[in-house]
Amino acid sequence: MFVTIFPTQPINILAKAENGVIVDDTQTDQALDHYFTFSDATDSTGKKGWAADTKEAINGSHEAKTQHWVWTQDQEEAKKHTYTFTFKGTGVKLYGVKNDNQNSFQLDNGNVETLTINGSANQITTLYEKQDLEYGTHTVSVTLPFGTGLQVSYAEVFGAKEGSTVKETILPNKTEEKYNAFQYHAYEGASWTVGEKEAYIDLGASDDKAEQCYYEIPFVGNKITITATKAPVHGIVKFTVDGEHERTVDLYAKNRHDELVYVVDGLSEDTHTLKAVTQKTKTGSKIVNQVVKAEVYHAPYVLKDIVIDASMTLIQGSTKQIKATSVPEYAPMDDLSFSSDHADIVSVDENGKLSALKEGSATIRVACGDVVKTMEVKVLPQTKQIAGTIVDENLQYTQDTYEKVSTMGQMEETISAWRNDSAVSEIAIIAKDSSLEDVSIEVSDFTNAYGTIDASNVDATFVKSVDAYTGMPGWGYAPNRYPVGNRAESSDVLYTKDAVDIPFAGVQPIWVNVNIPKDTTAGVYTGTIKVSCKDTKEVLTFTYHVNVQNVVLPDATEFENGFDIELWQYPYSSAEYYGVEPFSKKHFEILESIMEKYKSIGGHAITTTINEDAWDRQTYSKNEVHYPSMVKWTKEKDGSFTYDFTDFDKWVQFNKDLGIGDKIVIYSIAPWHNSFTYWENGKLVKERFTVGSKRYNEVWTDFFTAMVKHLDEKGWFDDAYVGIDERGLSETALNLLDTIKNKDGKTLKTAGAMDNLTGGEHPKLARRIDDLNVGDTVVQNNPEVFQQLLKDRNALGLKTTLYSCTGHIPGNFSLSAPAENYWSILFAYKNGTTGFLRWAYDAWVEDPLRDTSHSSFEAGDCFLIFPDEKNVANPTAKSSIRLEKMAQGVRDVNKLMLMTEEFPQLQADVDALLNSFDTRYESKGYYLTDSGKQEIAKDMNTVHDGIAKITEKYLALKGTGVNRDKLLQAIENAKPLLSEKDLYTVESFTAFEAAYQEAEKALRDANSTQENLDKAANALVNTQKA
Fold this sequence. Notes:
By secondary structure, this protein is α+β, with helices and mostly antiparallel strands. It has six domains: 9-165, Sandwich (Jelly Rolls); 169-298, Jelly Rolls, CATH 2.60.120; 305-380, Immunoglobulin-like; 386-478 and 488-550, Sandwich (Immunoglobulin-like), CATH 2.60.40.10; 559-603 and 755-954, no CATH class; 965-1023. α12 packs parallel to α13 (881-902), α12 (818-830) packs across α15 (930-958) and α16 packs antiparallel against α17. The protein is globular, with a radius of gyration of 34 Å. It starts with a strand and ends with a helix. The relative contact order is 0.07. Pfam families: Big_2 (PF02368), GH123_cat (PF13320), Glyco_hydro_123_N_2 (PF22680).
């Protein structure tokens, strides 16, 4: 085992404790030395057996939170429920939570002890303990003499000897370790989807290269088992261990279920490798390899030695992680401890992180059980140094890029933009072998001979990093269960323009955005960004040349007529984050900066809800209802419904007042939970429905009749779309909506998302939706099918866009490269669509400014904008680099559309540029590899630079290029004569002065024609003569 940030622990059902061996209540395999058994009695309610679940409210470890329990008020039934714990050792403890009951315990058929279970709610307490037994196999039987229930969380076994069998569960997302971990392989262009609950690779209906897609598990032990899901779309897999024990397993089944599919026992207690190869043949419709978990059985791993550096030299203020390697390398170091004999010089935390506090020396002790090693650490004083460089804004600059950034030294850059446009760049500052305080930014005006871009138009913002879970927990209902460990740094938040401190050897990015006013005269403008700190006199000066091209980019509010962007909004999320009443005055003050930013990038569609938890608790919340309905349904005593549109109206009107909301997406006739949600007698009711049933038709007809009437009354009907995403799109829903007409005989428009264009109703439905969003992975996998659909929809005058969401690569997540967000926009345009959609804009997790990890999806998947700190008086939303790169992409696509619409002959240049980048890039797991990120960054730079080149061709065709040199020279020649007033008559000097002023005005006027410039130059030359 290799320890980096902190000693890693395998996810064991049986783990070594400080004094004993922990055995979780989920361990029921009687082939092991330690296991639980639970009775299968049926209680008075007809429920059979025990409940087994995880209760997050219980304080303690994972083993504490898992539990088995039963509950019944019938004491006779209660007595039927029993459990036993069998173990091999010399002592035992059973742990659970207080339940106000008495439990009866019997050891090895001895005397029965009845004990009262005391303690505090949700606190682990000792249920039973016995020590100093003769070594051997013992069994504790537990019954309920009277009361209402039994509960147990885990056991601890003492005196378990070597030779005991350990069963280790390996989940699919355990990939970092060398042994007892998954390794996924696929040919270029194919990739595995890996989560906590499953991993799979979908190769479609046929694939001759299927056998190049497989997973391996190097393991140490004597037995291994594989559990997989059998399903209608799963394929055939060939398993081997060490090239032997071959078995081919068909994962096809009519009904989806998990099954133990492969077992190899009786192996030598040694290193082995399991291999699971996808087969080209199939029984079902697809070639899919899938796995749920592996279980490795082995003797307890015994640590023989620890390898660490004998000595280390640090600079004051620095930190360093002790790297400890176990011998053998698969042996765990669960109780690894660290200490320092001079903690005032070098401190060390429980995870082995050293902190050099002052000059001197210290001895660090590293111990695990009986194995002890020492390290001598010397601390040298630091010298304050600041350094920096302009970097490629298509990549992230986190602390692990320090060495790379320190070797760079680009202090000057030329960037291009249109008028009414923005040019972006990024700077990375490093505290070179030191820490720095009060690092600040100073921005100059950007000037040339023709005019000035005021410094107020230049935003230079320090970027804040957040933590992000490196995997994906996986689909499923887990509303507040967040993954632990496996975090990486994401440099993403445009946080502050105020001075910041940089920690020792830290990397601090600065995001640069030069906003070009609409009336700026074309030309190259030069300005500087200076970075300094209080610790050193050195000032870093970065020089920028902004090439302003003589074309005016349409305002973002006009992008809806070209290429637009739609990001689903979640306003209740910001209300919960800041602790304010939804849609109160304070909430709208908070929402203003969020939605103004959305408007500024071309967003105009707004998201509304008509169901409680329409996304079935996928969004984060501490509330029982994670995301409320903006329309409150109430079931009256007579069974009828009334509908309160108060929140809906407030939200829509707020956006209308901001100048957006001309598209109102109403979500949804197909909520994820397939239920009507309404309030009855003060309680929320979820009534499951069957699509197409009489009840379904009656209730939805009643609601949408009321909704249509309300929209008519507000004057919003023509702006409204009923939103339906991938799971709920059906002809039944569309047919029902077509029966409901407004006062003018019109029906509601629809906006739908699709991630499948083949089979079933999909082809037909895809041609009925008014505003269709297609997953960009569909286009990657079925480009011909998509292009035919696009052709058909264009002929019908229907809008088509692409969308990206969880599982898509390239992606838009916290750990994605910034270039991937620009790619998403350009890829959508490359494939002929007129927009891009994404969930979600602002569905924040609990503390997004610290950690963007989500309970089900990739970190950052559900928001592109960040909140302010909770305690500020006037919160202002903070943009992200991801959002800024999307915005840049939207601007650039609208440039291409404008130029090709005016001059179709430029289409060949545009096509060549769009064909210069790839549909896929090298990836592993959920993200692009480092190589893939470098490649996509290079390609996106090529595209952005190419747009500037096409712009020059456009300007040549348009003939808008003007030469201001003649006028500039005339002004320079005339300027000294302004102080020679005595050489002129009053009338001639007045004329000269007026001509000079007109000349300067013409020079700086972005819209001056060549004729105007020459006329002003000639007038100035003629009037300056004394």
